[in-house]
């Protein structure tokens, strides 16, 4: 499998877009840590940017890349290779290159300025977020053959997780504000990879007091190692299921 | 079945398709396609646009899975297998490759993928003929359409496979390269390979093909040797022979419809 991955990776790393993405992340990271003497604030600002930019870039770039590689994937499928290994090679190639961009752009500056447990949680959750949105992108791309539809679907997915979902949760909170919703909130958080990443980082900071009673329940849950491991595992599930489903679809798909 | 003439059925079929059906949604693209493709033949797969040529080729390569029917390559069904593709060299109609990869890397990758199944030395005739080595360090994204076509052709022949499937091989090639490729196809024919070609360039097919497989609306209209076709129609040129047969079948099918009414 890695026979193909190697070349996919080599190809993407030379891509200007990925270079630009790396530079953008690095510029944002250095400026946030550089301008603010309090690295805690820098981390928080960085988190907000990461939660928007990383999923967007991951899902859009991966979808475009998949459609642009269609003829190449066809050629590969005329070689003595299984569909599964072709698909996973592509996935690993794209996921690895975007992860590398994230590690260079955010990982290095964060470790320089805030190499604490908080910083490490930020890096890990950003990485998993990258992987899960690449996963979702591959799912969107195998669902339809039409590039425009695929891109639309990818954007809808991003829009949903980045903006709409939080709106829905707020709506639920307001409509049922007379009931104790803390446990429900905990569950709802698990249904959105972006929220999971956000909560994981926030709970490592001392700002949960700002979040009221829900924040306290969250703090109880996530600040323990047990809670962190659960959150990480759920985020891993968000990496695995879309690409697993996409592989199943791709296996039976007519190219 | 009166057109199934003069195909040397005695030879063991390299590829055998049995009752292949395939629909995309409501559109039926292949209807009960059954053919034996023996080794040593150059089969021209022709038909109007949308007649199912490309789908037929893709089913042979496993890119499209038929709704029903079985394809055998060297006697074994290809369903749920991928190893048989080591026996096939495929030249796609459009070659689009990762833009930042160099030609050399593409060749390295392919060699890496297929070396276990291609123990003999590589066939670099076309790499030499097309002077690809001089361009080995160029990224694939900077190549012209014709040069990409040359790369595709060289890759298809590289591993000396017993079956070659060439989708519009000469489209986009300059006259000289086109001749070089045709010479190569002729040589591989002499080596006893099975070669499938789709093309709309009848003069090319006239030079190369031994048999014609004509598809229309997804079914086999006729499958006959070129000599037989020319004999039957009294035409010297393949293009005219086919045109004649097609106009006849068109008339007879209209007549059949008229009788039904």
Automatic annotation (TrEMBL), chain A:
Pfam family, one: ABC2_membrane_2
Keyword annotations: Membrane, Transmembrane, Transmembrane helix
The keyword Nuclease belongs to this UniProt entry's keyword annotation: no
Protein name, UniProt field: ABC transporter permease
Keyword Repeat: no
Transmembrane segments: 12-33, 45-67, 88-108, 120-143, 155-176, 196-218, 225-250
């Amino acid at each position: 499998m890695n026979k193909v991955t190697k070349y996919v990776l080599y190809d993407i790393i030379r891509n200007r877009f990925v270079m630009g993405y790396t530079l953008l992340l690095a510029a944002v990271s250095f400026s946030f840590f550089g301008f603010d003497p309090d690295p805690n604030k820098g981390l928080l600002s960085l988190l907000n940017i990461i939660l928007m930019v990383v999923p967007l870039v991951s899902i859009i770039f991966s979808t475009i890349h998949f459609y642009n590689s269609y003829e190449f994937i066809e050629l590969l499928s005329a070689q003595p290779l299984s569909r599964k290994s072709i698909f996973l090679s592509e996935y690993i190639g794209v996921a690895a290159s975007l992860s590398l961009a994230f590690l260079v752009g955010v990982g290095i500056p964060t470790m320089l300025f805030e190499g604490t447990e908080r910083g490490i949680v930020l890096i890990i959750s950003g990485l998993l977020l990258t992987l899960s949105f690449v996963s979702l992108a591959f799912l969107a791309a195998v669902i339809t053959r039409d590039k425009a539809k695929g891109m639309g679907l990818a954007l809808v997915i991003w829009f949903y997780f980045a903006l709409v979902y939080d709106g829905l949760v707020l709506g639920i909170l307001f409509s049922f504000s007379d009931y104790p919703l803390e446990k429900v909130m905990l569950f709802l958080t698990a249904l959105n990879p972006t929220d999971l990443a956000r909560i994981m980082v926030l709970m490592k900071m001392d700002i949960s007091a700002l979040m009221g009673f829900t924040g306290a329940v969250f703090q109880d849950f996530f600040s323990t190692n047990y809670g962190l491991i659960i959150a990480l595992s759920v985020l891993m599930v968000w990496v695995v299921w879309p690409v697993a489903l996409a592989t199943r679809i791709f296996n039976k798909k007519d190219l | 079945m009166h057109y199934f003439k003069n195909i040397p059925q005695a030879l063991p079929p390299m590829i055998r398709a049995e009752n292949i059906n395939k629909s995309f949604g409501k559109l039926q693209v292949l209807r009960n396609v059954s053919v034996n493709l023996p080794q040593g033949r150059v089969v021209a797969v022709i038909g109007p646009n949308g007649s199912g040529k490309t789908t037929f080729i893709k089913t042979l390569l496993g890119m499209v899975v038929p709704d029903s029917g079985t394809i055998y390559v060297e006697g074994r069904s290809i369903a749920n297998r991928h190893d048989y593709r080591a026996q096939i060299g495929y030249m796609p109609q459009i070659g689009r490759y990762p833009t930042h990869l160099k030609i050399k890397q593409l060749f390295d990758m392919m060699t890496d993928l297929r070396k276990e199944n291609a123990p003999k030395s590589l066939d670099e005739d076309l790499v030499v003929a097309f002077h690809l080595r001089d361009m080995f360090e160029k990224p694939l994204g900077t190549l012209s359409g014709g040069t990409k076509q040359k790369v595709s052709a060289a890759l298809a022949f590289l591993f000396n496979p017993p079956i070659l499937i060439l989708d519009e091989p000469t489209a986009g090639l300059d006259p000289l390269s086109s001749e070089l490729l045709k010479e190569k196809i002729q040589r591989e024919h002499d080596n006893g390979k099975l070669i499938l070609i789709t093309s709309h360039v009848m003069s090319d097919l006239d030079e190369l093909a031994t048999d014609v497989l004509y598809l229309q609306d997804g079914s086999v209209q006729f499958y006959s040797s070129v000599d037989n076709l020319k004999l039957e129609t009294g035409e010297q040129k393949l293009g005219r022979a086919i045109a004649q047969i097609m106009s006849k079948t068109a008339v007879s099918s209209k007549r059949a419809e008229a009788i039904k009414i």
